[in-house]
TrEMBL record:
Record has Protease as a keyword: yes
UniProt entry tagged with the keyword Hydrolase: yes
Segments forming domain PDZ: 96-164
Name by which UniProt lists this protein: S41 family peptidase
Keywords assigned by UniProt, alphabetized: Hydrolase, Protease, Serine protease, Signal
Highest taxon above the source species: Bacteria
Family: Belongs to the peptidase S41A family.
Signal peptide positions on this chain: 1-33
Amino acid sequence: MTPFVTDVSAPAKRLLATLLPLALLSAPLPLLAQPANQSVADDLPLEEIQTFAEVFERIKRGYVEEVDDRTLLRNAMRGMLSELDPHSAYLDEEEYQSLRETTQGEFGGIGIEVGMENGQLVVVTPIDDTPASRAGLLSRDVIIAINGTPTESMSLQEAVTMMRGEPGSELRISVLRTGEDTPRTFTLNREVIRSESVKHELLEPGYGYLRISQFQTRTTEQARQAIERMMREQPLEGLILDLRNNPGGILQAAAGVADLFLDDGLIVYTEGRLSDTELSFSASPDTPAGDIPLVVLINSGSASAAEIVAGALQDQRRGVIMGTDSFGKGSVQQIMPLGNGEGLKLTTALYYTPNGRSIQAQGIVPDVEVVRGRLEVAESRLELRESDLGGHLDAQQPATQARMSATERLRDDYQMSEALNLLKALNVVDRRRR
């Protein structure tokens, strides 16, 4: 008796005829070298292949609507990858191009990074200065519907595709926020998202602020230029590196940014099943930041490449990590082009910090925990300043708008304010030791 189903259609028979030779060819070499009297069927999942063909046939015959073979096979490939982990996916031509645009720093959408967590579509972080961030979307918001369509059975790539579109078009998403029972609905207008990944400013004389919102192709060079620009204005006594709500990006860019602060030692290494997935990045002597005191801000929206930077600087004791626990995405995905113009995003390795820590599902724990908040200063009725006295002399050089803006930001951002205070304290201690 044949071990395969006999009552199948021509497409299912063709499918079996294709899958079985492929299964035999894909067997490991030791199996192919075994004696001829040992059954190949004992080592290959022939029963599962038979079941797959049977399911294929029953869908073809009995599903309420007719489905073509191409769609069924494509869906099978999507399912095969989505069951591996939340980050592996089959990318059609549009999705493949969209992912490439993201790494280059320009795409049409609302400016949001999402991921799958326990089967739910979760906001990893909104990108700075985009419709999503301006509307008030937060890390860990659970997206339950996109334009009225529930996301419960939606793949990550399907959700990303739905949220992207022509600039000016409207998008409506419903989210459930931690601690709230009623969903919130946001109506956003898509924009051309040109995300400059690096911003910088001087918070006070001698104290710089470097914000990296994601890691793109040019992030390392942009960060280097920002540091050099601030140092040209005046010597830096301290620097805040802000990686909060940074969803990650390109591995090489993360290693390059860490190298800006390190002049020796390991930055990150990866381990996978294949030799070409085992990479190692070490610091070079050329570092523009030198020994400038450094505080790195992270939070639950700091993921992947952002965690690589924070982990390297923490293990190398190059700076103080401040904030809250990071997201915990410690896997590496490779984007593989396929012959039909589409692509495959496949998790191929895990990355490790210099001390051998895996960040996967654990994250980076800050050296100093500081929750986000707003700095409120109590005012005393008896407090008297020179400016309150009649006939006081005005300052010869009024504060600049940039300084006023920085002051407002420090007041509104408790974590940044605490980071600046820590840098000042480190400088005081350092001067006393000299």
